[in-house]
Design goal:
This protein is of the alpha+beta class and 310 residues long. The protein has 2 domains: 36 residues, no CATH class; 242 residues, NADH Oxidase, CATH 3.40.109. The chain has 11 helices and 9 strands. A hairpin with a 4-residue loop joins strand 5 and strand 6. Helix 8 runs antiparallel to helix 11.
């Protein structure tokens, strides 16, 4: 037996021991400091609630749930179709000074299969600026408008429904994309919300808000070099948009959509020669405050950092 084989065997034995012989402790509730490992190997004996498991149980689909079926059926009406036709237009501003029209996006020439294979989390950046037409391309890939159709109304006439790059339950689009322009060519370092229909950016915060948003990250600069990033994308959710149709299960759809948007950002970033990393090491309350969100009706759901890889 060579040294490499013996080393792997020793590690295998250690892994088996760690996963098979760890004891559970029925007095875990009396322990002052409880690690995640301790909590999750004493689930069947501890009396503390498990939020994650409770979420899965309470968002299951049940047969014969007439309340949910009635809520869903209510969305097939003229009023709802008109409401859906307006989605995306609420990302507006009464002040023209806050509106930044986006240039045509640069074409993403890399094949999808190649972008998928090349995607890696890039955490360290050089500080190089992101061209504005590159930002436009990333935003379009993340949640841009890609088409429309006319929907006939029962009462007569029609409404125009718009489609985006990312699938959304019921076409409700509960997630808005906010951007902190850290170093983007031709763009002041402010907070912006993406308006997908025009397309455009709407300034929703200043430099102080960007600095405060940075403080909400609990990662050091040698882990993710935020100070040298080009842009940070904040996925802001309005769960009620989906939950008033699908109930508690709607929150699952919000999470799915956030993941799809983040993946589109990652793939577009790869195709443009930049790098990105998803980051959940954030203090929600601090990010929500920096973005002027109440944390419930509108709340931060996820973040993606983009920069030129170092």
């Amino acid at each position: 037996m060579n040294d490499g084989t013996k080393h792997r065997r020793d590690w295998l034995n250690a892994i088996i021991f760690a996963n098979s012989y760890k004891s559970w402790d029925t007095s875990v509730s009396a322990t002052g400091l409880r690690t995640h490992d301790l909590r999750y190997r004493t689930l069947s004996h501890a009396n503390h609630g498990s939020v994650a498991e409770a979420f899965l149980v309470n968002t299951r689909l049940q047969r014969g749930d007439w309340e949910s079926e009635s809520s869903i059926a209510a969305y097939f009406s003229d009023q709802t179709i008109l409401m859906l036709s307006m989605r995306g237009r609420d990302a507006g501003s009464e002040c023209n000074e806050n509106i930044v029209p986006l240039p045509p996006p640069v074409k993403l020439s890399m094949e999808l299969g190649e972008a998928i294979l090349r995607r890696r989390s890039k955490r360290l950046y050089t500080g190089d600026a992101l061209p504005l037409n590159y930002l436009s391309a990333i935003l379009r890939a993340a949640g841009g408008n890609t088409g429309s159709c006319k929907a006939d109304l029962i009462s007569g006439g029609s409404a125009t429904l718009h489609f985006r790059t990312t699938a959304s339950a019921g076409g409700l689009y509960p997630i808005d994309i906010h951007v902190a322009a850290v170093n983007v060519e031709g763009l002041a370092p402010h907070l912006y919300q993406y308006g997908p229909l025009e397309p455009r950016l709407i300034r929703v915060g200043g430099e102080a808000d960007v600095r405060n948003a940075f403080k909400g990250f609990v990662v050091s600069d040698d882990m993710i070099s935020l100070s040298r990033a080009s842009a940070i994308f904040f996925l802001v959710a309005q769960p009620w948009r989906v939950m008033r149709k699908y109930g508690a299960r709607g929150m699952r759809f919000v999470l799915m959509e956030a993941g799809a948007i983040a993946q589109n950002i990652n793939l577009a970033t790869v195709a443009l020669g930049f790098g990105s990393v998803e980051c959940a090491s954030t203090v929600d309350e601090e990010i929500n405050e920096a973005l002027h969100l109440d944390g419930t009706l509108r709340a931060i759901m996820h973040t993606v950092v983009v920069g030129y890889p170092g």
